[in-house]
Amino acid sequence: MRGDWEHWGLGAANLTPDRHTLWNVGVAKTWHLPKFQKVGLSFEYVDGKDLDRFSKYEFGFFSDVTVHGYQSDKVRAERAAAAHLTYGFELGSIFRIDLVGDAAWATDAASGLDNELLAGAGIVGTFIGPWGTVVNMDMGTALAGPDDGWSAFIAVLKLF
């Protein structure tokens, strides 16, 4: 509930803060192939009601809808439909690497997005590193849409 927030910014006095609602629905399936290969396909739809700039959907690594290569907070939308395709190789919990393709169609009246295509491709992987560390990586590049950058996240975890 944003009803007790102070007004700030240009035109803030005209806003009437209220409750907002977010919802999403999705379906995903992974097929395991011979020789430790796998293929995955997923679809999702996100929408909301009374969204402001803080509650709209983003498309970065830490967001509800991920499009590889997009930085968080670069694009925000009130509504989006997305599809994700993965092809990977997995050897138990020791080694995993996936090639990922993402496409999302975003709509946001305030930003002028009307089913704007956001597309990206990336590589996601996890492997055991030296000294018993777990290395997790997620790298991608934007292919279509208002972003033209790339993103990389690498985490090294030491289990004690």
Strand order of the largest sheet: 1-2-5-6-7-8-9
Total domain count: 1
Low-confidence runs of at least 5 consecutive residues:
none
Order of helices and strands: EEEEEEEEE
State mean pLDDT (0 to 100 scale): 87
Concise summary:
With 160 residues, the chain is mainly beta.
Describe, in plain words, how this protein is organized in 3D.
With 160 residues, the protein is mainly β. It has one domain (19-158): Porin (Beta Barrel), CATH 2.40.160. It is built from no helices and nine strands. It has strands at 21-32, 37-49, 57-58, 76-77, 79-91, 95-108, 113-128, 133-144, 150-158. The model has no long low-confidence stretch (mean pLDDT 87). It has a seven-stranded antiparallel sheet, with no helix packed on it.
Record the SSE blueprint.
Elements: E1 21-32, E2 37-49, E3 57-58, E4 76-77, E5 79-91, E6 95-108, E7 113-128, E8 133-144, E9 150-158
Antiparallel strand pairs: 1-2, 2-5, 3-4, 5-6, 6-7, 7-8, 8-9
